[in-house]
Amino acid sequence: MANPTQQDVSQVVSEELRFRSDDEECAATLYRPDGIEDVTPCVVMGNGFSLTRRDGLPRFAERFVDAGIATLTFDFRHLGDSDGEPRQLVDYQRQRTDLAAAVDFARTLEGIGADRIAVWGFSFAGGHVVHVAAHDDWLAAAVSMFPILDGLALAREYGLRNNARYMAAAVRASVGRRPIQMAVTGPPGAPAMLTQPEAEPGFDAVCAEDSRWRNEFLAKPSQPIVEIRPIREASNVRCPLLLCLGTEDTIAPVGPIERAADRAPQSDLRRYPIGHFDGFHDAFEEVVSDQIDFLDRHLVPSPRPDRSRIQ
């Protein structure tokens, strides 16, 4: 692991770190409250489909830190500043492993309460949150913001044509030809994965000036979208789970989020009359305030469960 660099940003201290996931490294940024010597809780944040840790997450992280909660953001492998070849590969199994590895890494950090960690994910990573929380009974809380929880519902409601494009690219890759990179987003009718009217302006709005995001991703033949269904694990999430739902969201199907809230034993469902990306800008204050309230209630010291159940 590289030695961290450190800088002060107002009342926030940020450190650039790296941690291992399998045999590669993920780039991460740790935000801490400045001048706080007590052990603090921590939120581990994973971003949405193809996005990096620079895109929209720092604003949330700084607000969490203002509330006394350290925050670890990171890039999934193959994206941003993390290792991984080929670049721009979006592999949901690897991303789940990365998110779990980030949680484990946070538990090792000095000054972080190992039993006071929450996992947070937006969009595609919101589904990863459900999977990781279903397999880690030591988590104190989980936040799934406008999550994509059922690839089958996504294909049925919004993306049959684009799913076919994805599969065509994946099939071509599977027969030994050069892998095809699709555009992540574009206007309606474009040859891209996400072409809903809110998609392209949403990505443009959330990406930072120093973003490493690229409007392309690599299809993988063994991972059809319709088989990515973290909704099936919602009933196994034992920690408190905050689910954020946008009633105007045309990217994350609403039905699976509602079903996840019904199935998870300790769910908290919040509805907002907004689209998929609006929690990063127009509705940011309401969304982040609800999340801070939720985290403040649940990131408290508690008896440690049997770690043998962590997978």
Automatic annotation (TrEMBL):
Please give the InterPro entries that the UniProt record associates with this protein. AB_hydrolase_fold, FrsA_esterase, Xaa-Pro-like_dom
List the Gene3D superfamilies: alpha/beta hydrolase
Start and end of every Xaa-Pro dipeptidyl-peptidase-like domain? 27-169
The source's superkingdom equals: Archaea
* Entry keyword set: Hydrolase, Plasmid
Report if keyword Signal is assigned: no
Provide the protein name: Alpha/beta hydrolase
Q: Which organism is it from?
A: Natronosalvus rutilus
